[in-house]
Design goal:
This protein is of the alpha+beta class. It is about 60% helix and about 10% strand. The protein has 21 helices and ten strands. Strand 2 and strand 3 form a beta hairpin. Helix 8 packs antiparallel against helix 11, helix 12 runs antiparallel to helix 13 and helix 13 packs antiparallel against helix 15. Flavin-adenine dinucleotide binds next to strand 1, strand 3 and helix 16.
Length: about 600
């Protein structure tokens, strides 16, 4: 292994250790990469407990009424501002402290219930859902997860009610996708009572309207010349806090206040550290796990709106003496949106349930959810846009706004390319380490190595021989379940093959990584769909529903998803990668004027 590769392995290992110290059970996504189907993570399909469902239904009724009466997404976009009375109203309904414990003024909702609330907002206005996410999903999340009782008591009640707003400030000029490259400095004072912060942050949602900002800055590591990231709770009334730009003009989600700010010798008391000193990256990545789950919920809501708009238009607009819905190429788009919206909801619910059940190690699943739902939503919007033809281009319909708003999703909270590579590399680490064990033993046999290599070999061989069982309850889903099991087996075989074929250089082969990550994402998505469908069939059966529920969208999703998986795996051996890279390198080498 060369120096660069071992550095990369170290980075991946560090990222995982940052998040999950100690022994852990095999999660669902990591299981896929090992050829296993970790059924108890995903089946049966999670349901919100009855008592909480009643509370959720009441909240949704209240929220819908409030949004119907007070939320005007077109006006928010035109004015590039969310009016204060909308923010206050969201606070009154409880949206701004939905998952905060009741003792700190929150509603104490689970993440699954919270996702339903965000789906409802995402259905109507992306500016508002991004604002709520910035405040609640990530802004006050570090305080909720890592704050001490005193910190929570002091800050949370006003933040939960919406009287005060929160923000999450990680991004800087040099720390975008490379989030660990934070340059903002936090120097301890002589007496150790506070830290002195200096630096700039950019692209921060709510920066200029927040009363509490979770700010990532670099602190010295005692006893060494190294530095590490620490999370601080900063308030804008601290001397030296300067807003450089309150609302950066932008293409979409124009109602949100995306800002830049600088800290000039800002004194932040030691009591304002969130979590452990030097563990700010762990804080940030854990916070983003929550953000990516509600991202999925907002995209689900927006996809449902796409479906409604598509159906409405296809049933009313006539061309060639027929409504558009009579044309197969329009039907194809509507069917695809319906299938994707079904899958997005299933995937969001299953992923949120991991958080509610207190499972460990769901960072791969939250990354998959974020990439999958944001990419699918982009396709959904493109389809409904096309169905509307020229009308979609006009500003009196919501489609051009929805298109502008949705584009940030593939960039924010981890660009999709970065997460795609992360999914493949973290997923492949388990089997990769087992192969390394076997390889090292073959090169330099020793008694100790032999036993480890034997265990690794048995595990790899076991996964190669066994097709995993996908335990659905409904008879009519058995064929889909068997097909999914076989595809997981094929996926594991393809991962093993890629690891053996490319070895360490695979760490830089993003075209290979992309196919592996895409296949893994579709395997997770179809698992969630199968689980949801199974749950619905069983529920209808228990309730004695005579009419068979309509499962056509779920059925279509499974068929299309299985087809995509086969295509991604086939692409591992049949592709134009060399030509792609040659053409790109040729362009990159030409000087630009
Ligand atoms: C409207 C808006 C709101 C935001 N809100 C917040 C907020 O509240 N808090 C916060 O901290 N940040 C926020 N951000 C910042 C956002 O998270 C970053 O923009 C994002 O992480 C990408 O960083 P970057 O813009 O510097 O892009 P870069 O890091 O420069 O990346 C540009 C592109 O390069 C490609 N790329 C980069 N690295 C790789 C790689 N390793 N492999 C392959 N391709 C790669 C990707 O296609 C990527 O899109 C916001 C941004 C916007 C636009």
């Amino acid at each position: 292994m060369n120096k660069l590769d071992s550095q990369r392995q170290k980075e991946i290992q560090q990222a995982e250790e940052l998040l999950f110290a100690g022994p852990q059970a095999l999660g669902f996504a990591k299981g896929l990469f090992q050829g296993h189907f970790v059924a108890d993570w995903v089946m049966p399909y999670p349901r919100i407990p009855a008592a909480q469902q009643i509370e959720l239904d009441e909240t949704l009724t209240e929220l819908r009424q409030f949004l119907d009466e007070h939320l005007d997404p077109a006006e928010i976009d035109r004015q590039a501002d969310i009016p204060r009375d909308v923010i206050d109203g969201l606070g009154r309904v409880g949206v701004l402290g939905m998952t905060a414990p009741k003792e700190y003024g929150g509603r104490g909702f689970s993440q699954m219930a919270n996702c339903k609330v965000l789906e409802e907002i995402g259905r109507r206005c992306a500016s508002t859902s991004v604002f709520v996410n910035a405040h609640h999903s990530i802004g006050i999340r570090a305080l909720l997860l890592f704050g001490t009782h005193e910190q929570k008591q002091r800050w949370l009640p006003k933040l939960s009610s919406g009287e005060q707003l929160g923000s999450f400030a990680l991004t800087e000029k040099e720390a975008g996708s490379d989030a660990a490259n934070v340059q903002m400095q936090a120097r301890p004072s002589e007496d150790g009572s506070h830290f002195i912060l200096n630096g700039e942050k950019r692209y921060i949602t709510n920066a200029a309207i927040a009363h509490e900002l979770t700010v990532m800055a670099r602190t010295p590591v005692p006893g060494s010349d190294k530095t590490a990231i620490t999370a601080f709770l900063v308030t804008p009334d601290m001397p030296g806090f300067e807003i450089l730009e309150a609302r950066m003009p932008k293409m979409g989600i124009r109602g949100t206040a995306t800002g830049r700010f600088a800290l000039h010798d800002v004194k932040v008391p030691r009591e304002n550290i969130l979590g452990t000193m030097g563990k700010g990256l762990k804080v940030a990545l854990t916070v983003l796990d929550f953000g990516r789950t509600t991202f999925g919920a907002c995209c689900t809501g927006a996809a449902k709106t796409c479906l409604e708009l598509a159906v409405q238009h296809a049933n009313t607009r006539k061309q060639f003496n027929k409504t558009l819905g009579n044309f197969e190429l329009v039907q194809k788009k509507i069917a695809r949106i319906a299938a994707d919206a079904y899958a997005m909801e299933a995937m969001t619910t299953v992923t949120a349930s991991f958080i509610d059940r207190g499972l460990e190690d769901y960072m791969l699943e939250t990354a998959m959810l974020k990439v999958f739902t944001t990419e699918r939503l982009w396709e959904c919007i493109n389809d409904v846009f096309q169905i509307h033809g020229g009308a979609a281009y006009m500003a009196d319909l919501p489609l051009e706004r929805m298109l502008r708003d949705a584009r940030i999703n593939q960039i924010g909270e981890g660009a999709n390319e970065v997460l795609t590579s992360f999914i493949a590399l973290v997923g492949m680490r388990g089997p990769g380490m087992e192969f390394k064990e076997i390889y090292d033993t073959m090169m330099k046999p020793s008694r100790e190595r032999m036993s480890k290599a034997w265990a690794a070999g048995k595990n790899r061989l076991g996964a190669t021989i066994r097709v995993p069982d996908v335990p659905v309850q409904s008879e009519q889903l058995r064929a889909h379940a068997r097909q999914l099991g076989r595809l997981i087996w094929r996926f594991n075989f393809a991962v093993n093959r890629a690891l053996i074929m490319y070895r360490e250089p695979i760490l830089d082969m993003q075209l290979v990584q992309e196919r592996i990550a895409n296949a893994a994402m579709d395997l997770f998505a179809s698992t969630c769909v199968l689980s949801r469908l199974d749950g619905e069939i069983q529920f209808a059966r228990r309730n004695g529903d005579a009419a068979a529920p309509d499962h056509s969208a779920a059925d279509l999703f499974l068929r299309q998803s299985f087809r995509r998986i086969r295509r991604f795996l086939a692409g591992l051996t049949d592709n134009d990668d060399k030509a792609v890279l040659t053409a790109a390198k040729s362009c990159l080498a030409k000087p630009t004027s």
